């Protein structure tokens, strides 16, 4: 179980690296996913990821791309600690001997277990982040103004209690179970491939960055539709979707067709590689540091 504790401790380091590198891309993604449908004959608010980025920096400044970062940054240490700790728990459950090599399917299972465990930490931060990001873009569907993360949490609790803060839990599970399974399994598979025979999984910094970046792309490639539904649901006015995910899905398909489920794909993929390369590089660096003293 020492590996569980160790992964729990260093997971936050990787998470902070992910947020710092990837948050601007995330802001663009959320604004694209939640922008209102244009009236007939009108142009959409943003024509794409690059246009969204340009408009945001021109009207609000570069640092507006980091709007809402406080919530995920504060939450990311326990979130990634729980994720990588959960991966280690999944490994512990499945191995008969600590020295046994994990198969690809076992790593899929471990990632899925970790995805379930992170939801309790993930949902409130995601809800707060998304509301602040769309408010800055000037098309907040709720019609409520928020002065920061704590103000969002207070108003959501006053509006609907804990249930309002945790709106989007099912959508987050739908997104994170397959995404986390892909994330861990692809990273561990690439680690073995890049390390080669007889190197005990030791990677160069460049190989670590490459494996982490590709694992991040695999993660997001399987969960974009669920992420679109989650963003819509978490930023909607109270009572807009009484049927939850089913109502959001029906609206997206009715108004935009299947392609609407992949809105934000470009900024997600642009973010996925550098953010997750930074995550695993920070994680492996922290693991190496702590193992020097164990």
UniProtKB/TrEMBL annotation:
<feature type="repeat" description="Solcar">
    <location>
        <begin position="102"/>
        <end position="193"/>
    </location>
</feature>
<dbReference type="GO" id="GO:0015227">
    <property type="term" value="F:O-acyl-L-carnitine transmembrane transporter activity"/>
</dbReference>
<dbReference type="InterPro" id="IPR023395">
    <property type="entry name" value="MCP_dom_sf"/>
</dbReference>
<dbReference type="GO" id="GO:0005471">
    <property type="term" value="F:ATP:ADP antiporter activity"/>
</dbReference>
<dbReference type="GO" id="GO:0140021">
    <property type="term" value="P:mitochondrial ADP transmembrane transport"/>
</dbReference>
<dbReference type="GO" id="GO:1902603">
    <property type="term" value="P:carnitine transmembrane transport"/>
</dbReference>
<feature type="transmembrane region" description="Helical">
    <location>
        <begin position="268"/>
        <end position="290"/>
    </location>
</feature>
<feature type="repeat" description="Solcar">
    <location>
        <begin position="203"/>
        <end position="289"/>
    </location>
</feature>
<keyword id="KW-0812">Transmembrane</keyword>
<dbReference type="GO" id="GO:0006839">
    <property type="term" value="P:mitochondrial transport"/>
</dbReference>
<comment type="similarity">
    <text>Belongs to the mitochondrial carrier (TC 2.A.29) family.</text>
</comment>
<feature type="repeat" description="Solcar">
    <location>
        <begin position="2"/>
        <end position="93"/>
    </location>
</feature>
<keyword id="KW-0813">Transport</keyword>
<dbReference type="Pfam" id="PF00153">
    <property type="entry name" value="Mito_carr"/>
</dbReference>
<dbReference type="GO" id="GO:0005743">
    <property type="term" value="C:mitochondrial inner membrane"/>
</dbReference>
<protein>
    <recommendedName>
        <fullName>Mitochondrial carrier protein</fullName>
    </recommendedName>
</protein>
<dbReference type="InterPro" id="IPR002113">
    <property type="entry name" value="ADT_euk_type"/>
</dbReference>
<keyword id="KW-0496">Mitochondrion</keyword>
<keyword id="KW-0472">Membrane</keyword>
<keyword id="KW-0677">Repeat</keyword>
<dbReference type="InterPro" id="IPR018108">
    <property type="entry name" value="MCP_transmembrane"/>
</dbReference>
<dbReference type="InterPro" id="IPR050567">
    <property type="entry name" value="Mitochondrial_Carrier"/>
</dbReference>
<feature type="transmembrane region" description="Helical">
    <location>
        <begin position="69"/>
        <end position="93"/>
    </location>
</feature>
<keyword id="KW-1133">Transmembrane helix</keyword>
<dbReference type="GO" id="GO:1990544">
    <property type="term" value="P:mitochondrial ATP transmembrane transport"/>
</dbReference>
């Amino acid at each position: 179980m020492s590996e569980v504790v160790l992964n729990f401790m260093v997971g936050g380091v990787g998470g902070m690296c992910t947020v710092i590198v990837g948050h601007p891309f995330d802001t663009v993604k959320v604004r694209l996913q939640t922008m209102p449908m244009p009236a007939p004959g009108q142009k959409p608010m943003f024509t794409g990821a690059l246009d969204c980025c340009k408009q945001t920096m021109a009207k609000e400044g570069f640092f507006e791309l980091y709007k809402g970062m406080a919530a995920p940054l504060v939450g990311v240490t326990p979130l990634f600690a729980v994720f990588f700790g959960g991966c280690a728990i999944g490994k512990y459950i499945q191995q008969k001997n600590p020295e046994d090599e994990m198969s690809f399917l076992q790593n899929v299972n471990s990632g899925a277990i970790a995805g379930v465990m992170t939801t309790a930490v993930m949902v409130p931060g995601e809800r707060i982040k998304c509301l602040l990001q769309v408010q800055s873009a000037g098309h907040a569907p709720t019609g409520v103004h928020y002065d920061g993360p704590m103000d969002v949490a207070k108003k959501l609790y006053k509006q609907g209690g804990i249930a309002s803060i945790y709106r989007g839990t099912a959508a987050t599970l739908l997104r994170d179970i397959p995404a986390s399974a892909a994330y861990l399994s692809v990273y561990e598979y690439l680690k073995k491939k890049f390390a080669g025979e007889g190197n005990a999984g030791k990677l160069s910094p460049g190989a670590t960055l490459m494996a982490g970046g590709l694992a991040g792309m695999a993660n997001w490639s399987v969960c974009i539709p669920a992420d679109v539904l989650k963003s819509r649901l978490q930023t909607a006015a109270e009572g807009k979707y009484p049927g939850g995910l089913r109502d959001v899905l029906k609206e997206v398909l009715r108004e935009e067709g299947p392609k609407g489920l992949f809105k934000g794909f470009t900024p997600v993929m642009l973010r996925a590689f550098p953010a997750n390369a930074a995550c695993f590089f920070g994680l492996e660096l922290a693991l190496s540091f702590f193992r020097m003293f164990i």
